[in-house]
């Protein structure tokens, strides 16, 4: 990223991108009346030349002329700038561009425009009804998925048309035979009793000035499908499927038509479609013999279709999304197809992820079927299906004798391998492709090093995140669970924010976390929450780490985004958690009250020394872990209050954090520094959470003891969920860089690179989900090959190995402090911040004893370079630096 010579800003186009809130690109169906505006500078600016910025806002409602305003603003206010004009109304479209003005009054070229259109902001304008099939259905599993349709006439070709769509269950729309949108699993999973997302589609080009037809596919999804382990539960939110559709059509003369779902005008009809049954975990059965050609096109004979029935709906609960939809994010062709018996083929797609197979159907006779079962790994050459538990992941297709393409519609699978049975001829590579799906997040972080194993680990972490950020942050994508476990994301959120822009995605989930906390009395174990298995108690029990998500997730996204407004909205959730747990502490500040669930506290969950069938049996005392995490949460709650100007909470929670810290030291740290739990986890938490910062001798001892414990285990990991994110940072912080690197680069079990050495393409739930002999861990009741929690090591990879360390919220200030060691001689790190892209490359040449750094610093940021004893402050622009360094 070379720096342009010092031209005047009028000679260039200095604005790289413009965006609304945390939404990238053009936004359709926003709920924001006053969306904040951000823009990123393409190059560093020269303050003696820049006088200010101008925002050009064009806006219009359907059928109205466009109005334009140009607002002068401070050019330094380019991050989440407050909406500078009057609020937007429903269906209003606005576009924004930005330019700079120099000290002579000359303006640069305008940036590219970005547009935003609001949705149906007034509940009174939501004119449709929730309607579904009127026929009797079974109230439990394996229910036939319905179709619904309506025909209508338009007086002319529309100038503009918007379809607003949601459902009880899952829905996909077709207009005149064409699928609407590229998203799947719509409307996504929220706490449906509180809010139901509706999505907006531009369907102007789908419609014609004559007969039209709107068709809707419906599926069980999260709304009424079977969810969860121990047999799961069905009909969690209701037992009737329904859809809400509102089509607003605007003509060139400004007049409008509105077509809505309803049961009163007898124009909406329903029929059983070709999806015989569909479950997110079970899979989908499709019978092409039940297809009715042209059902979503005008002129179709629906005389044998039945009228729809209206279902209860509170339109105030319809909510515009702030997170991206679930869409295709990648495609994979088979790396191998092996015959596996008569008409059976075992497919290896090369990578494990959340995906679906799309088949080219040919050569089938009428009534001929094939099935596909999916699994993450093989064991003895066969699909390892035991870890799936109830989630069979089996799809079945029955042919009508016609050649076509088929992909399941309302299910997703976590797999690398698939067994196809019943294929009538040779299965060729061109007959199948895997389409990977995930929430369509903007990528913001990249890391590449001279060690290909490390690069593979980083790829695995990214793939596991993509696989599990599907509408909500889930634990795994394959077995009968797929829940939004709060503990997993509490630990992984900083890494997630480094890899992708997750502000909108996680803020949406935090809204539901807040709602469910109020409803069930404490932060639930997973969100959305419904009582299940051993987790159903009269009142949700407060669990350390899992409950600390109420603090750790808002903090992580605030630090990356610098968004105080969003943090302010989430702070009441922080207060709820801190106030609740404060009441559980013993007089000395230790959290030793046992929750009333079978495990008690979960502690250092999945400690590698724990028996395969007892995940909570960790070496580190649970009350130690709980107290350490609460001390940290209280400290962060104080820091958030400080940034928000909430002095009363700032002082109160700082005192609370000190009290808990003192209790932690008194109860768990001996006078000689030896901890009551002499474990990697205990020392890592004490060091990294700052609990020993006021006792330099204790902290120094803790660092030495932690390093010794790592050496004693022959540089293998001895931590579970609780300690893993912090063991490498704790070693690094206390001057034990060699132990940190040797632990990180070990490929002995348990370790991060052990998984890589075993061929993993995602991160595992257990350190030894697959044993060295190729067998799946005997604890198959809880063995997943696609969990992101242990991928929290990427935070250390970026900060220590990559050398990129955040110093202030929103990356206004950061450190460049690479710490080369051993075989890793160079690294390239990129992070797209709200202010622009940080691009950092370092290379260590041992023979010269020098460290070479190239760093691109975005406008609005500054960096402190720390290499050995050297320290330099650098500002926006491209920098080429050389330092003497000895590894």
TrEMBL record:
Gene3D superfamilies: 1.50.10.10, Galactose-binding domain-like, Immunoglobulins, Maltose phosphorylase, domain 3. Its EC number is 3.2.1.40. Pfam families: Bac_rhamnosid (PF05592), Bac_rhamnosid6H (PF17389), Bac_rhamnosid_C (PF17390), Bac_rhamnosid_N (PF08531), Ig_Rha78A_N (PF25788). Residues 803-867 form the Alpha-L-rhamnosidase C-terminal domain. It is an enzyme of class 3 (hydrolase). It comes from the Bacteria. GO terms for molecular function: alpha-L-rhamnosidase activity. One of its GO terms (biological process) is carbohydrate metabolic process. It catalyses: Hydrolysis of terminal non-reducing alpha-L-rhamnose residues in alpha-L-rhamnosides. Residues 157-328 form the Bacterial alpha-L-rhamnosidase N-terminal domain. Keywords: Hydrolase. Residues 442-800 form the Alpha-L-rhamnosidase six-hairpin glycosidase domain. The keyword Hydrolase applies. Residues 342-435 form the Alpha-L-rhamnosidase concanavalin-like domain. This is alpha-L-rhamnosidase. It comes from Bifidobacterium asteroides. The lineage of its organism: Bacteria, Bacillati, Actinomycetota, Actinomycetes, Bifidobacteriales.
């Amino acid at each position: 990223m070379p720096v342009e010579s010092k031209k005047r800003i009028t000679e260039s186009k200095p604005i790289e991108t413009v965006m609304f809130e945390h939404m990238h690109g053009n936004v359709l169906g926003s709920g924001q009346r006053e969306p904040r505006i951000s823009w990123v500078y393409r190059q560093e600016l020269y303050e003696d030349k820049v006088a200010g910025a101008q925002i050009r806002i064009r806006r219009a409602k359907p059928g109205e002329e466009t109005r334009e305003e140009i607002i002068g603003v401070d050019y330094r206010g380019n991050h989440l700038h407050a909406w500078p004009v009057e609020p937007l109304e429903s269906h209003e479209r606005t576009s924004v561009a930005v330019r700079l003005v120099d000290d002579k009054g000359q303006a640069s070229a305008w940036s590219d425009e970005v547009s935003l259109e609001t949705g149906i902001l007034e509940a009174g304008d939501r004119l449709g009804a929730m309607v579904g099939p009127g026929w009797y259905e079974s109230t439990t599993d394996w229910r036939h998925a319905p179709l619904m349709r309506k025909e209508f006439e338009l007086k002319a070709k529309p100038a503009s048309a918007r379809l607003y769509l949601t459902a009880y269950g899952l829905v996909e729309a077709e207009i005149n035979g064409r699928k609407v949108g590229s998203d799947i699993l719509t409307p996504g999973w929220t706490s449906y009793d509180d809010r139901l997302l509706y999505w907006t589609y531009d369907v102007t080009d789908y419609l014609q000035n004559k007969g039209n037809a709107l068709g809707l596919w419906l599926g069980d999804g999260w709304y009424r499908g079977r969810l969860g382990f121990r047999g799961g539960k069905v009909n969690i939110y209701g037992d009737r499927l329904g859809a809400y559709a509102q089509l607003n059509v605007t003509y060139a003369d400004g007049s409008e038509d509105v077509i809505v779902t309803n049961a009163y005008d007898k124009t909406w009809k329903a029929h059983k479609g070709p999806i015989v049954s569909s479950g997110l975990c079970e899979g989908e059965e499709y019978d092409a013999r039940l297809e009715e050609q042209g059902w979503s096109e005008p002129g179709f004979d629906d005389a044998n279709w039945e009228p729809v029935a209206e279902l209860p709906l509170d339109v105030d609960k319809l909510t515009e999304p702030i997170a991206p939809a679930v869409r295709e994010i990648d495609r994979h062709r088979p790396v191998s197809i092996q015959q596996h018996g008569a008409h059976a083929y075992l497919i290896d797609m090369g990578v494990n992820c959340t995906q679906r197979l799309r088949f080219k159907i040919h050569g089938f006779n009428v009534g001929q079927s094939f099935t596909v079962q999916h699994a993450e790994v093989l064991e003895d050459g066969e699909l390892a299906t035991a870890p799936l538990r109830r989630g069979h992941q089996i799809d079945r297709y029955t042919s009508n004798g016609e050649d076509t393409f088929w992909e399941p519609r309302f299910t997703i699978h976590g797999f690398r391998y698939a067994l196809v049975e019943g294929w009538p001829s040779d299965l060729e590579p061109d007959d199948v492709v895997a389409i990977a799906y995930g929430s369509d997040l903007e990528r913001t972080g990249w890391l590449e090093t001279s060690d290909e194993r490390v690069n593979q680990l980083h790829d695995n972490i990214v793939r596991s995140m993509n696989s599990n950020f599907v509408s909500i942050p889930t634990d795994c994508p394959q077995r009968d669970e797929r829940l939004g476990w709060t503990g997993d994301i509490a630990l992984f959120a900083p890494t997630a924010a480094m890899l992708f822009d997750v502000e909108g995605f996680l803020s949406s989930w935090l809204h539901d976390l807040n709602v469910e906390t109020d409803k069930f009395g404490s932060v639930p174990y997973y969100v959305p929450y419904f009582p299940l298995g051993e987790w159903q108690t009269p009142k949700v029990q407060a669990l350390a780490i899992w409950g600390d998500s109420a603090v750790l997730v808002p903090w992580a996204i605030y630090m990356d985004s610098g968004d105080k407004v969003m943090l302010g909205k989430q702070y009441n959730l922080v207060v709820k958690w801190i106030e609740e747990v404060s009441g559980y502490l013993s007089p000395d500040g230790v959290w030793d009250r046992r929750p009333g669930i079978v495990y008690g506290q979960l502690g250092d969950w999945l400690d590698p020394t724990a028996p395969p069938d007892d995940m909570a049996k960790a070496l580190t005392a649970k009350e130690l872990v709980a107290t350490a995490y609460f001390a940290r949460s209280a400290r962060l709650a104080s820091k958030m209050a400080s940034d928000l100007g909430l002095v009363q909470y700032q002082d109160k929670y700082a005192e609370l954090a000190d009290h808990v810290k003192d209790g932690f030291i008194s109860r768990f740290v001996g006078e000689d520094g030896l901890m009551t739990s002499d474990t990697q986890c205990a020392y890592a938490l004490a060091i990294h959470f700052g609990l020993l910062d006021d006792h330099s001798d204790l902290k120094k001892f803790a660092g030495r003891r932690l390093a010794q414990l790592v050496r004693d285990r022959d540089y293998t990991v001895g931590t579970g969920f609780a300690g893993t994110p912090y063991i490498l940072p704790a070693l690094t912080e206390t001057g034990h860089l060699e132990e940190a690197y040797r632990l990180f680069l070990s490929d002995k079990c348990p370790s991060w690179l052990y998984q890589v050495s075993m061929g993993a393409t995602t991160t595992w739930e257990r350190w030894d989900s697959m044993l060295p002999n190729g067998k799946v861990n005997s604890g198959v009741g809880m063995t997943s090959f696609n969990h992101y929690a242990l991928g929290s090591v990427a935070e250390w990879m970026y900060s220590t190995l990559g050398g990129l360390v955040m110093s202030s919220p929103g990356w206004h200030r950061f450190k460049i402090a690479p710490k080369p060691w051993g075989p890793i001689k160079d690294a390239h790190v990129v992070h797209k911040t709200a202010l622009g892209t940080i691009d950092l490359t370092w290379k260590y040449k041992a023979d010269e004893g020098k460290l070479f750094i190239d760093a691109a610093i975005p406008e609005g940021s500054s960096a402190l370079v720390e290499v050995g004893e050297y320290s330099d402050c650098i500002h926006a622009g491209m920098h080429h630096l050389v330092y003497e360094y000895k590894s």
